[in-house]
Design a protein that fits this description.
Layout: H1 3-18, E1 27-35, E2 38-47, E3 50-52, H2 60-69, E4 80-86, E5 91-96, H3 110-119, H4 129-138
Antiparallel strand pairs: 1-2, 1-4, 2-3, 4-5
Length: 145
């Protein structure tokens, strides 16, 4: 993990989210799910008890860079990231390395699993149970390092 690069990239993501914030909004939250080369984003803006979902496309290269910077050779890369910008300028981030990405109705395919383990290898003990089950279901083997 490259902590400096992670921090710099989160700041760039927050700057992009700032464009969505209007007077009176409390927060803007970007949730990014990724596996292999498949990625889905969702943005929610909160004001009081109301949430709106604006049409917004984050620069995917920023998120690819964030994922790469926050990965490690033994634990791989996260499957879900969340960056939250508050009206007062605070930024929070959270990375989920263990739970499946949220792709909605898009299925996880064998090539997604293969690309994930090829590009962001994990030690066998760091491959989550859901990932192993999907590998077995789709006939995917851990790539040779």
């Amino acid at each position: 993990m490259n902590a400096e690069r992670v921090s710099e990239t989160i700041a760039k993501v927050a700057s992009s989210l700032l464009r969505l914030m209007e007077s009176g909004d409390q927060s803007v939250v970007l949730t990014w799910s990724e596996l292999g080369w498949k990625a889905v984003d969702r943005v929610a803006v909160t004001r009081n008890d109301e949430v709106r979902y604006p049409a917004f496309a984050i620069d995917s290269n920023l998120m690819f860079d964030l994922r790469d910077a926050s990965s490690s050779p033994s634990t791989g890369a996260w499957f879900k990231a969340q960056v939250k910008l508050f009206a007062d300028g605070r930024v929070e981030s959270n990375f989920d390395y263990d739970n499946p990405p949220d792709f909605g109705v898009m299925p996880i395919l064998a090539e997604d699993l293969d690309a994930e383990l090829t590009n962001w290898p994990r030690n066998p003990e760091n491959i989550p149970a859901w990932f192993r089950e999907k590998m077995a279901e789709l006939g995917v083997e851990v790539p040779k390092q």
